[in-house]
């Protein structure tokens, strides 16, 4: 624990044994397991947290404890849209064991917060705008007491008719002082009068996918002697969270400290400080540590989800299948608040034509407020929805023209030097054609054998009701793209410090390990550059310089780049005396396998001998080249770089029952450079599986704005039994020269591409249009052939 944290803990008579463990917890930071050999970039170095997670000692926020601990509970609205007439907290305050109750009247600073747009209240005061919106919070000496006290708060509502259809939101009464329209992007590229010989149209709907974190949100707030507070939670962007929290508390940012605990997986769900702000308010009010551990229902109600999207498309092509013009209308349902909707819309509009050459494009994109659950960052936001639609259009074109779907995609494949519909030239490697060819040419899986012993292969699983004669096999393709880092002028910067002392290296960087492998990468970078075997990655907190959010693969680029630069500066400090002694430059010395040698072999020594008790350190920053916002016509160099993926899905469909079994997913991906083969394969497989969930099962259903079945029984996640054989048939390593190490993000683009491929395969098996995700059974039912 830092000195400040220790002082605060002692002053409040707290004992935080689990917090102490954070000093060695990867994800916040960790050292290597002693039996692992030194390995640099390109090796499958095992994550340092493997042992702790296996043994159950890895410190997540839900595990934290402090002496004198109080428990928090939040009262949430049962209505999606209502006027609050009164809030009576007396019933809760009079309950034995209740220490504090807070509402909007008790927020000392800004009453609204927002990571991108400040429009979301800490507690609803006059209006409720979505089901589950926080109304009040309680601190009590027992978790059950806290829950009962929250339920005892009496709120009188005037229930209002919710606006749940985003198409009606344009003409509806304003749901928010900022209005219902969050952003409109009209993209104009080329000649509006251009037409093609072949025209296909389609209407597509994408459902509301939930991040469904493995562990629900949790946190611990500890008051400080200076009137500030420390919050221990699974934040993925601690510095932004700190600033938002401090503004709501009316405190200087320096008096709020966010300490990152272990993150039990994050695909966007860890970015809403709405769980953390009430926690700190209660700690400041009571002067005691306060803990919140959300139930699964609260998790579904409280965090943001993938934007449900309505898409209308018209594709024009010539007789050979080459695209002439794409017209589209894209409508994102932002839910009650803006959150990341503007950024998601920019990605959707910019990538609406996919990784294909399109001479003329006219796209209209809107993001609107409704009384549905809030939408926000979920891996591949914006890009995933349009991929499902434009790939559906490509299948329609192939069928209309009478050519193979893979061949149609090859004829239109984007490559380096081509221009996006935003007017931006693709300067990074774009091996789209190579990816398509790789999945097209990969061997297909064998057909299932006939016979009762293989009935488990049928759609519907073991003991399913289907008949083998009703099963049809389908093969479909999906090709997708995502942007790297932030977009539209986002200042992407990260800072890292590398310190070497007594032969041990320590990396200090506020990049949060969310499962993307940053802590392992940081260790590999230092091992590669310095030849030091033992490398520790420090726990993350806001006393460190900011590193930005853990989204869009940015930590591999900006934080990994900062670590590399700092390590190279330490390397120069290490080699400078030797180079001076032998009359040569440091560039003529190399470090490999823990040894330092000169180009001519005259010098040969070890890194440990050269260090010999020295303490060396350096701090460096990495900031990619700037981007710019899209202009009033959707034009501009808005993205730093792009990554691409192609997937071939093979499915078996029971065309009588509409049940679907994914047999195999063949993947080819543009990765720039493989930094850790095992870790990369895991990220791709996880992304494909998440995409299969979006394609077949995951849909957070609502009825007039009310979330139905907010639990993991009503919300069907794919399990290990649903995961097909995932074959990575090719990884194309064409290094992006402007990216550190030349690597590209790995996990988002499979999520974007997999749903489109599954939908295409179901189309192939059934002959049905399949224009809605997830695919409902009735959409996969077809008349048996013959």
Automatic annotation (TrEMBL):
<dbReference type="InterPro" id="IPR000674">
    <property type="entry name" value="Ald_Oxase/Xan_DH_a/b"/>
</dbReference>
<feature type="domain" description="Aldehyde oxidase/xanthine dehydrogenase a/b hammerhead">
    <location>
        <begin position="55"/>
        <end position="161"/>
    </location>
</feature>
<dbReference type="InterPro" id="IPR046867">
    <property type="entry name" value="AldOxase/xan_DH_MoCoBD2"/>
</dbReference>
<dbReference type="Pfam" id="PF01315">
    <property type="entry name" value="Ald_Xan_dh_C"/>
</dbReference>
<feature type="compositionally biased region" description="Low complexity">
    <location>
        <begin position="1"/>
        <end position="25"/>
    </location>
</feature>
<dbReference type="InterPro" id="IPR037165">
    <property type="entry name" value="AldOxase/xan_DH_Mopterin-bd_sf"/>
</dbReference>
<dbReference type="Pfam" id="PF20256">
    <property type="entry name" value="MoCoBD_2"/>
</dbReference>
<dbReference type="InterPro" id="IPR008274">
    <property type="entry name" value="AldOxase/xan_DH_MoCoBD1"/>
</dbReference>
<dbReference type="InterPro" id="IPR016208">
    <property type="entry name" value="Ald_Oxase/xanthine_DH-like"/>
</dbReference>
<dbReference type="InterPro" id="IPR036856">
    <property type="entry name" value="Ald_Oxase/Xan_DH_a/b_sf"/>
</dbReference>
<dbReference type="Pfam" id="PF02738">
    <property type="entry name" value="MoCoBD_1"/>
</dbReference>
<feature type="region of interest" description="Disordered">
    <location>
        <begin position="1"/>
        <end position="52"/>
    </location>
</feature>
<protein>
    <submittedName>
        <fullName>Molybdopterin-dependent oxidoreductase</fullName>
    </submittedName>
</protein>
């Amino acid at each position: 624990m830092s000195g400040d944290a220790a002082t605060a803990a002692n002053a409040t008579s707290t004992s935080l044994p689990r917090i102490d463990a954070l000093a060695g917890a990867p994800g916040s930071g960790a050292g290597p397991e002693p039996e692992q050999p030194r390995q640099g970039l390109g090796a499958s170095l095992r994550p340092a947290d493997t042992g702790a997670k296996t043994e159950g000692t890895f410190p997540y926020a839900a595990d934290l404890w402090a002496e004198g601990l109080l428990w928090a509970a939040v009262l949430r609205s049962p209505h999606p849209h209502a006027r609050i007439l009164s809030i009576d907290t007396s019933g809760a305050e009079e309950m034995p064991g209740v220490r504090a109750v807070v509402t909007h009247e008790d927020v000392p600073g800004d009453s609204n917060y927002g990571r991108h747009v400040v429009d979301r209240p800490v507690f609803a005061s006059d209006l409720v705008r979505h089901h589950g919106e926080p109304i009040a919070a309680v601190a009590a000496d027992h978790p059950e007491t806290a829950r009962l006290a929250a339920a005892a708060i009496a709120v009188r509502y005037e229930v209002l008719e919710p606006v749940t259809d985003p198409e009606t939101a344009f003409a509806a009464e304003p749901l928010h002082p900022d209005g219902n329209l969050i952003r409109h992007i009209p993209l104009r590229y080329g000649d509006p009068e251009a037409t093609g010989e072949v025209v296909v149209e389609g209407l597509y709907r994408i459902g509301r996918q939930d991040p469904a974190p493995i562990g629900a949100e949790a946190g611990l707030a500890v008051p400080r002697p200076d009137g500030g507070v420390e919050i221990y939670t699974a934040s993925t962007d601690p510095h932004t969270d700190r600033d938002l929290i401090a503004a709501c508390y009316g405190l200087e940012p320096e008096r709020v400290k966010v300490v990152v605990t272990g993150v039990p997986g994050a695909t966007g769900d860890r970015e809403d400080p709405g769980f953390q702000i009430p926690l700190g308010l209660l700690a400041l009010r009571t002067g005691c540590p306060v803990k919140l551990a959300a139930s699964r229902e609260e998790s579904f109600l409280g965090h943001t989800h993938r934007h449900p999207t309505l898409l209308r498309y018209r594709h024009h092509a010539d007789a050979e299948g080459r695209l002439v013009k794409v017209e589209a209308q894209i409508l994102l349902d932002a839910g009650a608040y803006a959150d990341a909707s503007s950024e998601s819309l920019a990605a959707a509009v910019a990538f609406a034509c996919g990784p294909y050459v399109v001479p003329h494009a006219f796209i209209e994109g809107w993001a609107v407020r409704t009384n549905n659950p809030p939408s926000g960052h979920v891996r591949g936001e914006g890009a995933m929805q349009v991929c499902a639609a434009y790939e559906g259009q490509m299948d329609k074109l192939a069928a209309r023209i009478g050519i193979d779907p893979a061949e149609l995609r090859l004829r239109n494949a984007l490559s380096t030097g081509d221009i996006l519909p935003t007017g931006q030239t693709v300067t990074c490697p774009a091996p789209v054609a190579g990816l398509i060819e790789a999945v097209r040419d990969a061997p297909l899986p064998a057909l299932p054998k006939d016979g009762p012993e293989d009935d488990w292969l049928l759609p519907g699983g073991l003991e399913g009701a289907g008949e083998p004669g009703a099963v049809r096999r389908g093969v479909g393709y999906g090709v997708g793209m995502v942007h790297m880092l932030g977009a539209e002028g986002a200042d992407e910067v990260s800072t890292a410090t590398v310190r070497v002392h007594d032969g041990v290296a320590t990396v200090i960087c506020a990049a949060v390990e969310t499962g993307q492998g940053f802590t392992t990468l940081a260790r590999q970078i230092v091992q590669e550059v310095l030849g030091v075997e033992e490398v520790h990655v420090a726990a993350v907190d806001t006393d460190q310089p900011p590193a930005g959010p853990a989204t869009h693969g940015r930590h591999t680029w900006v934080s990994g780049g900062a670590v590399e630069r700092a390590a190279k500066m330490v390397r120069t400090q290490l080699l400078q005396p030797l180079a001076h002694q032998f009359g040569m430059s440091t560039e003529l010395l190399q470090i490999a396998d823990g040894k330092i040698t000169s180009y001519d072999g005259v010098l040969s020594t070890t890194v440990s001998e050269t260090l010999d008790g020295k303490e060396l350190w350096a701090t460096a920053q990495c900031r990619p080249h700037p981007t710019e916002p899209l202009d009033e016509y959707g034009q501009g160099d808005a993205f730093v770089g792009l990554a691409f993926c192609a997937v071939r899905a093979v499915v078996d469909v029971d065309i009588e029952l509409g049940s679907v079994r994914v047999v195999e997913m063949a993947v080819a991906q543009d990765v720039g450079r493989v930094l850790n083969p095992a870790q990369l394969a895991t990220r791709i497989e996880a992304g494909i599986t998440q995409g299969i969930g979006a394609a077949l099962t995951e849909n957070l259903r609502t009825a007039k704005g009310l979330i139905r079945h907010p639990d993991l029984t009503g919300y069907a996640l794919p399990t290990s039994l649903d995961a097909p054989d995932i074959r990575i048939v090719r990884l194309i390593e064409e290094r992006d020269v402007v990216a550190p190490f030349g690597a590209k993000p790995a996990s988002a683009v499979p999520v974007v591409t997999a749903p489109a491929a599954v939908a295409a395969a179901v189309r192939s098996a059934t002959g049905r249009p399949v224009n809605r995700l997830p695919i409902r059974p009735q959409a996969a039912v077809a008349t048996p052939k013959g």
